[in-house]
Specification:
Layout: E1 6-12, H1 17-22, E2 40-48, E3 58-62, E4 77-80, E5 85-87, H2 94-116, E6 126-129, H3 134-146, E7 150-153, H4 160-166, E8 168-172
Parallel strand pairs: 6-7, 7-8
Antiparallel strand pairs: 1-2, 1-4, 2-3, 3-5
Helix pairs in contact: 2-3
Length: 188
């Protein structure tokens, strides 16, 4: 295992699009081999040289080039730097943390940033582009739960029923690259 202060017994890792890319021949994701894929993980601290974490702590790791430049979560054990760890929130199980995984974390950060910049449920509806992907589907669910009117944009018309079940009020096709009408009114 690589260097790091904390040894984790991995219980779960989500399957992310980047993981699929990392395992294809000629990919541009992994620069050095051998590599263990898995861009996130949730598990239990087995051993620690850190004062912040001790054996038995339930933790999550997302980001930090896990599964790309550093051995990832598709393993029984992972050794990582202590600053990469987050203690598992009390209202989540390890399994739930990886069901949401990196995609859920990304969607949550995006929503938090939008709210910080003034987006609120009192304003116009919110558009989720790429709504049928991992980040998109979780963003639709989260935004609906908060109370937003969600418009889902996707090129996959076969996902319309699923997106409505997740909370989208309206499904639209991918947005055009440009508006062909000079000075035409655009919604988005």
């Amino acid at each position: 295992l690589p260097e790091g202060e904390v040894l984790i017994k991995v219980k779960y890792s989500g399957i992310n699009y980047k993981d699929a890319l990392a395992t294809t021949t000629g990919n541009k994701i992994v620069k050095s081999y051998p590599m263990v894929p898995g861009v996130d993980l949730a598990g239990v601290v087995e051993a620690s040289d850190s004062h912040a974490y001790e054996p038995g702590d339930e933790v999550i790791v997302t980001g930090f080039d896990l599964g790309v430049a550093h051995f990832g979560g598709f393993s029984e054990y992972a050794r990582v730097k202590e600053e990469w760890l987050v203690k598992l929130p009390k209202d989540l199980t390890l399994e739930e943390a990886m069901i949401y995984g990196t995609a859920g974390y990304t969607a949550g950060l995006a929503i938090e940033t939008l709210e910080h910049n003034g987006l609120s449920i009192e304003h116009a509806p919110v558009l989720v582009r790429g709504a049928s992907g991992g980040v998109g589907t979780l963003a639709v669910m989260m935004l609906k739960e908060i109370g937003f009117k969600v418009i889902a944009s996707t090129g996959k018309t076969s996902t319309a029923d699923k997106l409505q079940t997740l909370g989208a009020k309206e499904i639209i096709d991918r947005l055009p690259d440009n508006d062909s009408k000079p000075l035409g009114k655009r919604t988005w």
